Amino acid sequence: MHRRTLLGTVGSTVASVGLAGCAGGLPWDSESTTTESGVREPTTVDGSNRSRHDVERASADHLLVLANRDDDPHRVTYSTTERSTGLDVYTERRTIEPGFDEAVYTLEDAEPRGIQSYECTLELEDGSASTVLWTNQCYGDATLAVTADGDLTASVDTC
Fold it and tell me: In the chain, how many domains are there?
């Protein structure tokens, strides 16, 4: 009798633990957290499994900087896409001369609502580079660059 009780308990524990990981991490899942003042606030998990916490504050004050550190001009396409919808909020194709290093777009123009993520991409005919930029205060500007070797890089400043 004790053996059956033990096996039943172990079996249900293993099943519970095994299924526990299946419930979280979906874009529509939500949980709540309690702040220091005792107020319960939702914590949302988006498609990238990145938790958003109440300590983060939305800020769209981020620039997309384009740079050419190579000695040759390059014909490039750069774009910014809102990741949750796939909506292309900005695309431009132009030739950038050697030494070019300027802000070409601000996320404020995308009019984000709250904390959202955007993929910033730089393309040449033979390759591309991209990075993800979040509209929260801990993220800075995104830089898309052609290196001195003619390669592509993409980076984001963070705090």
Answer: 2
Domain extent at residue 43? 22-55
Q: How many residues does the chain have?
A: 159
Instruction: Assess if residue 7 is contained within a domain.
Output: no
Residue 61 one-letter amino acid = D
Q: What is the mean pLDDT of each run of 10 residues along the chain (159 residues)?
A: 49 45 39 52 44 66 96 97 95 97 95 93 95 92 96 92
Q: How is 93-148 classified by DSSP, letter by letter?
A: EEEE-TT-EEEEEEGGGG---SS-EEEEEEEETTEEEEEEEESBTTEEEEEEEE-T
Tell me if residue 33 falls in helix, strand or coil: strand
CA 67, CA 153: separation in Å to the nearest integer?
10
